[in-house]
Amino acid sequence: METSLPAYKKYLFVCENSREEGRCCAPDGNRLRELLKQSAKEKGLAGRVRVSRAGCLDSCAEGPNVLLMPDNVWFKRVRENDVEAILRRAAEGL
Ligand code: FES
Question: In angstroms, how far is CA 83 from the centroid of its own chain?
Answer without folding.
Answer: 9
